[in-house]
Amino acid sequence: MEEKKWKKCPRCGKKYNTYPAISRKDNETKICPKCGNEEALLDFMFLNEKDIPRID
Ligand SMILES: [Zn+2]
User: Fold this and answer.
1) How far apart are the CA of 11 and the centre of ligand 1, in A?
2) Mean pLDDT value of segment 2-27
């Protein structure tokens, strides 16, 4: 057990001991891989949304 390797994700508040992901919001905050995937997915959806022409 190497507890010093445990990191706390500032996004979800859960502890993780795997390689951290970098938040896409500021490109420096280390978050857990799960949140990294979520942000990547949200980013992906947001980019797709911007490509959709809006009709006002
Ligand atoms: Zn997290």
Assistant:
1) 5
2) 90
